[in-house]
Amino acid sequence: MKREELLKPETLARLRGLDIKARLVVEGFLEGLHRSPYKGFSVEFSEYRPYIPGDEPRRIDWKVYAKRDRFYVKEYQEETNLRAMLLVDSSQSMTYRSGALSKLDYAVTLAAALTFLLIKQKDAVGMATFDTQIREYVPARSSNKHMQLLLSRFENLSSGGETNLAKSLHGLAERTRKRGLVIIFSDLFDDPDDVLLALRHFRHRKHEVILFHILDPQEENFDFSSPLRLVDMETRKEASLDPRLIRAEYRKALAGYKKRLLRTCSEHHIDYNPILTNQSLEHALFRYLEKRRRLR
Amino acid sequence: MFSFASPWFLLLTPIALGPLVLHLLSRRKMRRTEFSSLFFLRKLRERRFRWLKLRDILLLILRTLFLAFLVLALSRPVWKGRFPVRLTRADLVLVLDDSYSTSARFAEITETAERLSGELTSGSGLSILTPSGVIWDTLLQDISVSGWETRLQNLQASQSGRDLEDAWKQALSMLEKSKTSNKRIAFVSDGQARALDFLKTAPIPSDIEVYCFTDRAEPPANVSILSTRLYPAYPLPGEDQALKVIVKATENNAQANLEVFTDSKLRERRTVSAGRESREFLFNLPQDAEKIRSEIDTDSIPADDRRFVHGAGAGKLKVALVAGQDSDLLSLGLRAGGGLEVRQVSASSAAGVSPQTHDLIVWDDVYRPSVIDAVTSRGLPVFVLLGEDAEDIPRVFRMLEESPAKGFEIMASSWLFSDLSVEDIREIKFSKYLRLEPEGGNTVLSFSGGDPMIIADTSRNIYYSAVQFTPEHTNLVYRAIFPVFIQRLATFAAGQRKGNEFYIGDTLKVRVPTGEPMFVETPELHYEITPKPADQGFLVEFANTQKPGFYTIGTETFVVNPDPRESSPEKIRPAELEERGIKVFPLGASTPVKLWLPLLILAAICLAAELLFIFL
């Protein structure tokens, strides 16, 4: 199977076992090019660089000074000091699907792939699921055994009820004390002001945040053809409507919502990634790696 | 009050409910689909859903209204509002047509008059005239004077045939005394052209508004028997025979009672529906039937048609009608009124008819010259219906083995037909406007504008008619014309010259040398009347000629008939009156407002609004 095929949602939907999916995705995607974004004291040497006024004098390598008669500062690469928390929205709305994968399937596969990727780099990974409240919380570890635990939790994830995204995120922000990378997978069906406030909470805790806004293509396009009665999967409330009459308005409202999220996330250095469930996972993984590069 | 010119379109009214039904059906059939969240839809609902819901309801209403207005417009509703003459205080002279032709419509005429009078504003003046005289005159008083209602309700159609010109002149002279600025004359008539024709040319004073309420109803359908034949023509021994009657009508869906007689007894009466296309009806016959006859039951003729049937008068002129039981003319001849008494005579006994028992013998049977000669030799005039079209008069003469040069005279065709439209004249198939140039023919009796249709052998007192009265016209024209035709001919043949023929309502005048009282004999009563002095001697005037029949004043006899022109179906065209500034309305209607155009405009507005909503 070609590498590109492995990353397609249709292919992944046919595969069984989340661990296999995750491994195939990651192996198909990258070849171990992964570094910790945090530089500092560590056992692994990274490089020399000329001394700049302001650098701590204790970091000057005096042996090099003796040889070159210039100040050089010795830099090291930290090995496993990235703590990543994968937060997956498991509300009922996430189970919606119009194609091969539901939003929850897509989020779980992506989270599993990232888990696999992070653990392989010896980073610590934790996970949490939430709907109206936090349903599961697994602190970050970096062992292979922990990875199996996480994959098992992801695989057995069940959808919950309604979404109270902001409340759950606030709770998780409080609970995740050590700074690290927070990756959120959600359809973000909540009041945008509350969501953004919760995201700022993570930033306040000095977390780096990647937000995957996962939507189904049908939610994006709203291209139902005939009048229908829509039933809210979370609240079971119904609305009779002719989609042709409100399609434009719907798309406009959604685009406005996304634009607002993008703008506010950008202001707070949150990496906002809208993604559709019919898009290749490669796209999402690239987004993650880009973020990692920026963090270096 | 609403009425509809094309009410059958109202059957389409349920179509207007179509959008509502479709709306409800579409709601019922609406697919139920799960969707992740109505989060954005809820947000939309706040801003736009209300408008969309309102738009849906508005579209539904607009579509329903569009269809409703369209259906209503197609049914051409007319709002019969109040009369136009009531709007202001005015002096109104109502001229009611009570001529013989209005008899079938007279209730509507009086009803219209009553409504017109009843809606006059306080302070208005009212006079009611008919050609027969003044019914009510409070023109210079207030309308509040009661009594006119009773007068109107007691009013009946006369048998006279006067037009309305004299009443019009009288109305004008009455209004001359009126001091109000609103002077109005309203004619209420059946719309017969001869009664109102004068309005096309009569000078109309500028200060008088003229209204005309006329009946625009079409003449009733004419159902007729085209032909009859036995089926099978040659039955085998013991095989039943049937009579096949082929019926046709001038309009579709015209109903009439078709009767079949066998041996002079009514065998079967059946209500049939005839149309413009001929239809066949089969009647089973008994095996031993000998004389078979079929006819349209005259009692099934619509009421409108009854005005053409002349009232039966006391029989003075006795006419023998030689006709078989199957003669189409027999029943009509027997009904001929106006001073005629028609008796059926068989061909075999016709030779015995004499001037002592009869005044005229009408021959509608196999032509038997020997019998006719025997009758005429006794001095009795004979009228022979040849049953031929007079298209080929020379051939008629050849058939009679006579020469037109030998004392035959051509009688001009009947003025009785002059009132009929060209189509009607063609219908009765007389002569096809024959242009015969007779040798030495003299016109002895003017029946019409000059076309010959009756050939008179004046030397032998025989009158031949080449007019073919076909069974197609057993209802309307035929019924209307034939009795009058016979009546007139009988009057002529019996020596009653035209000068002594009058119509109902006419005044009979006789000059006498002395002023001694004289007896006047009428069909009903006897009067004694004293002559009035005149320029040369004395004059007797008798105006009470309300019944048809013979009137004798002293030694002079007058024939008083209903005016045959009253049978004319020709109506005056409203456009001709409107050209003269006369406001014309249908009889019984008042200020009719035709609503189809406003409704069509409303439908168009609904459609435009709907399109606007859709594209907004």
TrEMBL record, chain A:
Residues 81-243 form the VWFA domain. CDD domains: vWFA (cd00198). This is DUF58 domain-containing protein. It comes from candidate division WOR-3 bacterium.
